Amino acid sequence: MEYIVKTENLVFEYKIQAADDAAAETKAALGGVDIAVTQGEFVAVLGHNGSGKSTLAKHINCLLSPTSGIMWVKGISVADEARLWDIRSSVGMVFQNPDNQIIATIVEEDVAFGPENLGVPPAEIRARVDEALLSVGMAEFAENPPHFLSGGQKQRVAIAGILAMRPDIIVLDEPTAMLDPIGRREVISVVQKLNREGITIIFITHFMDEAAQADRIIVMEEGKVAMTGTPAEVFAQIAPLKAIGLDVPQVAEIADGLRRAGVALPQGILTVDALVEAICQLR
Ligand SMILES: Nc1ncnc2c1ncn2[C@@H]1O[C@H](COP(=O)(O)OP(=O)(O)OP(=O)(O)O)[C@@H](O)[C@H]1O
Ligand SMILES: [Mg+2]
């Protein structure tokens, strides 16, 4: 099996510079992480605040370099400085705040920024920008100033900017945290579409219903992987999840309550539709 992202005992410590010349203190953020992501997979990363999700994400495009252990992206070690550019041009990052990611005053100029930095020829940039905006459903806003857009639209423009660089992997660090329910749905459905088109997705979120859409979930706790499995497998672990401060999707909890009350529901119910169907099949 070919892994597009893989780590082996990945450790990262932040160095906290003391104000005076005293020795810098360190803060352990990743304490030996082993993950393996398959090409084309959609992986959601869950975990309480401070569990190391963003720190892990920042290794994937070399914003951070391991204190010890290894991370490979497309088979290249992120510590291999000579290959930094290869990794950075294959991994797109989308962050929480849409307003911090859009820099140009016209949507299409913003989307062109990435490929311009990669040295893509102008005619090709034009084609890539059009294609990327079409892909996220924002083509009609190409000539608009971004500040009139909704949060969900801005995140889709940010994603278009990444797409125009033709990445193999997109890492999204809580891209829906600042959005309303409509914006969240827009972003999720664009991400799902890109995944169907073959892009590997690593999606950090605090929303359990979003994680339920992934192929696989990785749960982080205090700098380590606490659980991994399909959404059905992970969300069946209601008590262990609650013990580390996480919830399960509301529907999974309702289904669990019904099972405890003696209703013969199957395992793995994560959506309202699945619950309705299971109830209709009871007799
Ligand atoms: N720049 C930094 N300097 C020092 N410590 C940091 C820094 N950034 C994060 N940390 C610490 O590293 C640990 C992991 O933080 P990280 O941001 O990766 O967690 P997270 O899971 O993304 O949290 P959140 O859900 O709040 O985004 C935390 O204890 C955090 O306080
Ligand atoms: Mg974070």
What small molecules are bound in this structure? adenosine-5'-triphosphate, magnesium ion
**What's the total count of β strands?**
11
Quaternary class: single chain
- Whole-number mean pLDDT: 94
Q: Uncertain spans, ≥5 residues at pLDDT below 50?
A: none
Shape: globular
In angstroms, what separates the terminal alpha carbons? 43 Å
How many helix segments?
11
- How much of the residues is beta strand, in percent? 15-25%
Element order, helices and strands?
EEEEHEEHEHHHEHEHEEHHHH
Q: Structural class of the helix and strand makeup?
A: alpha/beta
Biggest β-sheet: strands ordered side by side in the sheet:
7-8-9-4-10-11
- The residue fraction in helices comes out at 25-40%
Radius of gyration, in angstroms, nearest whole number: 20 Å
For the largest beta-sheet, the strand count, sense and barrel status come to:
6 strands, mixed
